[in-house]
Amino acid sequence: MAAAGFPCSECALSLAALSFLAALGSGSCAGQMNLMIPQNVQVHIINTNITLKWDWDSWNNFSVTFSAHYQWLEDCKENGTSWTELPGCQSVTVTECDLSSAVTDYLCNYSVRVRAERGEEKSPWSEPFIFIPDIIAEIGPPEVQLESVDGVMKVNISPPEANSKKKMWAQHSFSYNAVIWKKSSNAEPKNRAIYPRDIIDDLEPETAYCMKVQARLISEAKRGYFSPEQCINTTRASNGLPCPTNVTVHALNMKFLLNWDNHYNKNVSFNVQYLSGFYKQFYEDYSNKWYIVAGCENISHTQCDFSSNVGASGNYYIRVNATNGYNRSCSSKEIKVDPCVINEIGPPSVKVNSGPSLLRIQITCPGEENKSMSECYEFTYRIQYWENSSKPEVENEVAQQPFHTISNLMPSRAYCLKVQAFARAYNKSGQFSNVICTETLSVLWRTTLQ
């Protein structure tokens, strides 16, 4: 019994019943067994194009035609025992036919069977092949358009079946993988994730590059067919003002600073723009969604604080351009900013109070004044402490809360400590606090209080 995408155990009885019914066929003539049963019945699906195929030994059987029936199964149980003739697949002379028009619900179970025919002779039906279209379907290639402008390659991707009325993937969201290589060299092709509308700005000018793109469904670990290979010659940047270069981002405690080089021999001003990464997931043009960073418009210096434009969730893209009068440069390379990932965690603030043979530690999380820090991270704290002696032995403790006590220390001894925040979700360690040294109280002090 052949089956694909059939998820439930209750189907075993249904499949057995179908095999029995298929063996009975629709007629019982004595010559029926002279014709072989079609073998290896399969269904192949790319997007909504559904093809039924089977094998036939044509060397021993001439002048044979084939007919196919299909059946819809509901909830893994037979919807009656009736079979329906497959339109366009009756008395055909080839070993495949189109099943697309018969399948209308891609989440349901379907069953198909095939038999051979020669005049009044009919073979037994093949074993039913049972499948769920959504599960066995393969993803077709996307459509890709390339354009070279000002030294960069612009990529515009349309999803598989974009121009089809019927949609296999209407409830799914694709991500895309691109393979890029130099056309005239033996350079190793490079794989990179790519957005539906994207710019590739790390290519050599005046060089032929080739690309192919595939769609992916990460949730189902499905990779589609690649688009046809396309090649394009990159151009040089415009002869006007060159693009700003060496654009970098530094972030500490969710304070984000953008820096770049000023390599211009004339007076220029700079404009910094940001884009919410949310827009890059869509196929529409988002060029009008770039906004000026407040306080970073027509500035003469090469640093911009864009902290107010960045939240803890999502990601952002930043770019810079230069202007001189009516001359405007091309934009710099886009810098992706994933706030919680690229941010560096500074040192926490630490207060220490001594007790008899113990130290009480109060920790204030790094960047407490910045709400985004607590939205990004849930901190634990690593505490290193040691006796302030000529040969200290460093001990470690982990504090789950901002208040922590180190006990079982020697009374009337000087101890030093420093604290570091740790965000487990990001496997990110912060900077250590300044070292604080203090002396534990004596046991006598505690006895006196009592």
From TrEMBL:
Q: What is the superkingdom listed in this entry's lineage?
A: Eukaryota
Q: Which SUPFAM superfamilies match?
A: Fibronectin type III
- Keyword Membrane among UniProt keywords: no
Q: Which InterPro entries match?
A: FN3_dom (IPR003961), FN3_sf (IPR036116), Ig-like_fold (IPR013783), Interferon/interleukin_rcp_dom (IPR015373), Type-II_Cytokine-TF_Rcpt (IPR050650)
Pfam families in the cross-refs: Interfer-bind (PF09294), Tissue_fac (PF01108)
Domain named Fibronectin type-III is located at: 37-139, 344-443
A molecular-function term among this protein's GO annotations: type I interferon receptor activity
Q: Determine if Glycoprotein is one of this entry's keywords.
A: no
**Keywords linked to the UniProt accession:** Receptor, Signal
Cross-referenced PANTHER family = INTERFERON ALPHA_BETA RECEPTOR 1, INTERFERON/INTERLEUKIN RECEPTOR
Q: What is this protein called?
A: Interferon alpha/beta receptor 1 isoform X2
The species this protein was found in:
Alligator sinensis
Q: What is the lineage of its organism?
A: Eukaryota, Metazoa, Chordata, Craniata, Vertebrata
Gene, per the UniProt record:
IFNAR1
